[in-house]
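Q: What would this complex look like in 3D?
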Amino acid sequence: MPYFNELGWRCPNSSYRTYSNSKTNYYKLNKFVNKPREILEKSKKHFPSLQDIESKVFEKNLEELRKRIESNEDFKPILNSKYYPFIIPINYKKIDIGEQLEKELLPLVERSFKNEFPDCHFKITIQNNLPLCKKISISQISRYEELVKKNNKNVICGFYFPEALIGYDIPSQKEQMRDLPQFDGICISGALDICSALIGNPQMLIHKETYSPILCLTALEHQDKRITCLFKSYGPHLEFWGLSNQLLPGIDQVSEQWTGGLSFYKVMSN
Amino acid sequence: MAISDSITVENNAISEIEQGKREYQRNKRPRVFEKIDNHNSDTLNGSISPILRLKINRSACNMQCQHCCEEPYMTRDLVKRTGKKDPRKQMELEDYRKLSIEADEYGIFRFVITGGEALLDRNLGDLIEVLDPYKHLIILDSNGWFFDDEKAKWFADKGGYKVQISLDSMNPADHDAFRRTPGAHAKALRAFKAAKKAGLQMLLSSCLIKDRVFSEEFEEMMAFCAEEEIPLYLTLAKPVGSGKGHDEWVCTKKDVDYLKFLEDKHQIFTHMTPSYGHPGKCITVKGINTVNHDGEIMPCPFMDMSLGNVTKEPLSLILDRGMKNKWLGPYRDECIIGENWEFIKFHNDKVNEWSQDVPYLPVPYEKGFALTDSVED
Ligand code: SF4
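A: Here is my prediction, written as structure tokens for the whole assembly.
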């Protein structure tokens, strides 16, 4: 049994809870994915420490990573789904992840989005009305901790695959790092990677003809386990929510629209 | 943007009870506020507190609107088609009393009374009483024809909370033609004045057809609402009911997106506008459920398929069943009856199949929604 189908969607099995047994095609990401050169330009605008990175170096690193995925039979089909290159500057400060999200990453996503869509809003709503500082931790089974550790000393580049786990409920999204084969530089998507991907592609969730998937930051765990952090569009607008993941009391949300992502990454080399 | 600047659950819940009147209402209807507070704190658990929209008096109406989805439920239509009125047992006051108690236990705090034209019902006063306007907010849908000063005062004295008056165009000739009732526009304007004088909350309810959102007339309507301080509530024409076959009326995502853009600038909203700290999404079961004259519960005002009959089963069981239905419970942003053609086909096929043998809607649970998957499957 392959791990991913021909659309790059993680094949479900009986231990996972999914909305359906096949990948939905109703919710669509924006048709355009910016070229690496443009992504780097946009990222430099918001992460000044990336100023000295040359486009050809970024592209070379991405190409190396892409080839590594392509040569891995287990992961190769994931390249058939839409994916977004990203670049994350070194994170020297090692601040609390909730604080980093609230005070640094979300304002940058907002700036990048508003640059592109000046008349639209970027709104944040947390359903328990509390700030995110000191409320967020990293899911132990997400392998996201390794990305954070590497990022403390290095610039990271990679690809975010938003639709790899579309339709999976949150617990089943989290389980993936236990079940998927090893790969040097893979994790369940979280804040640094998704926010960086959105900074490089602020149009990702904006679609004129249809609705787009809802991007869960599954590698992050809120202190209140009923809350999941996510990005969604609202018409022409972009929103960040700390939203209940409960369908009914005691029953997890399982939605055709909610998606968990996988991120593949590497340390940038010259 | 700091999180403290953003929408909070409390702010939105409280906006339902207009800011200036908050303390007055809290004293007048403490149980309503208790339920709102409970809903706010339970919302993360996945608890819901939907509006129950009661269709009364066999949907009798004095108008004949072109876009009305109620026509197939009306006696005048049934008599034309079958020679007689709906023979099914209709909800009685005792059924509504029981429903009010069950709704209260479930944490529901809003009833919308609708028709047809609800004010045609001579028993409306008794109905408001059994629903208990101090435990629930009682909201009245009206085309405004009968809602003069006297009626507005009567409704307020009965404990009514809000009136939702329909106005489909600022152009009197267009509104009257749409409603096939000369003078309808003038009566609706009179109704707003009457509601204001009686101290009732109110909103202007207007049907949006394709491209109207971009029109000068719609701008005029927004300006009127701003000047009169009336919130503007918009319903979007759907390809069902009388709208079936009128694809030229159905709003596209372009219309809907522009509306979402305008929401930031004007006091306008649809039932999908983010509120109560919930994102803008389809609100089947979670937002508004319609109770038909015979007790059948429909998960959306535009659907002709039932989740069960509240005179035969507990309300809580019916709502839980709806939340577990794969089409209705799980999160989705789009309006499934207006935009999701897979669902629209399923819905219209089931309605057509049922209507071949039986002239009465809605399609019972066993013949419709029971045939779709549940999240527990
Ligand atoms: S299907 Fe459409 S009209 Fe019905 S509740 Fe959902 S959004 Fe509203």
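A: To summarize the key features: The pocket of iron/sulfur cluster is lined by residues B 271-272, 282-284, 287, 300, 302, 335-338 (CB under 6 Å). Chain A has one domain: 36-267.
Q: Very helpful, thank you.
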